[in-house]
Amino acid sequence: MRSSLLFAVSLLVITSCSGPYTRTNVAADEEKPVAVQTMRTNLRPIPDVITASGELLAEEQATIGVKAPGRVVKLYVDLGSLVEANEVLAEIDPTDYEFRVRQSDALVNQTRAKLGIADKTSDDVVIEDTAIVREAEAVVKEARFVFDTTAKLQKEGVLSRIEFEKAQVRRQGAEAAFQAAKEQVMQLRAELSERRAQLALARQNLADCKVRAAFPGAVTRRHASLGEYLNVNAPVVTMVRQHPVRVRAEIPERLASKIRVGQPITVSIQGGSTGPTGRVVRLSPAIDAQSRSLVLEGEIPNQKGTLRPGSFAEVSITIDAHATGIAIPRDAVVSFAGTDRVYLASRNRLDDRIVKLGRPLANESVEIVSGLEPGLDVFLKPDAKMTKGQKVVIR
Question: What Å distances lie between residue 276 and 54, 231, 243, 272, 321, CA to CA?
Answer without folding.
Answer: 16, 43, 12, 13, 16
